[in-house]
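Whether sequence alone determines local backbone shape is best considered at the level of individual chains. Part of our work consisted of pairing the sequence of a single chain with a tokenised description of its backbone. This step matters because it turns folding into a mapping between discrete strings. For completeness, the protein is quoted in full, as a sequence line and a line of structure tokens:

_____
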Amino acid sequence: MTATSHTTTTDRLLAAVKDGVEVYDLGRRLFFGMPQSPNHPAFLLTLPRRHGDMVRADGGSAANDLLVMGTHVGTHVDALAHVSQDGRLHGGADAAAAGAGGRYVELGAHTIAPMVRRGVLLDVPAALGQESSPAGYEITPDDLDATVAHQGTPVGAGDVALIRTGWGRHFDDPDRTRYVGHDSGVPGVGADGARWLADRRVHAAGADTIAFERLAPGAGHSSLPAHRILLVEHGIYLIEAMDLDGIAAAGVHEFTFVLAPLPLFGATGSPVRPLAVVSRG
């Protein structure tokens, strides 16, 4: 009998993981009372059963939870079904008809494929010599170009571009309205910045703010042109309320981006815990 020779092949990605990686958590902790858009159901977690409420004969006990929340609370990704314009969704589908039956079958959160892609952090205030972008400031294409040049990290087709404004430092402020920024306004891209991203054919774009894009002082969510341009016109997913301060402090601007939305059938969005992974080597 002739012995069979077995050749062991190591996947290059697995090899990189085995050599050691650094993981940056880009998601926010979910907790009762956290700042959120007033347009969505709040986060609520309760314990219907606590340890000791029911004890087995052998002394063991288990606790359980009840979770109630909107899909656009905390760090989350917007499905293409989330926004319509003039009665139409991305691709031209009739928005009213698409919601028949109480779910969006074609463009719901379950249709967002898990993402393992090149990620780029665009640390705009750092590139402009600021600690944070001012309240209500619109990040321009010139600002984005300056950030790319400062970091040496061009944004290309299929990438996930994450825009840091510095506004995320307000997420844990005791005044929960500070991060929402209705009165002050919130920095972010506007229509021109959204077109800058669309021109580079990114797969998804994210930010450390509650609505991704710039909110004018006193206007709240009354006008969201970047949502229209990116979600409806170009089919680019949006990730909101990210934690980008840690990775920015580490000076990491290019990484493997990992995101897996919950396959919520027909939902307009999904809570997520995005990760940035870089090799220690």
Observations:
- The longest strand covers residues 115-123.
- The helical segments are 12-19, 95-98, 124-127, 141-151, 176-180, 191-199, 225-233, 245-249.
- Confidence is low (pLDDT under 50) at residues 1-7.
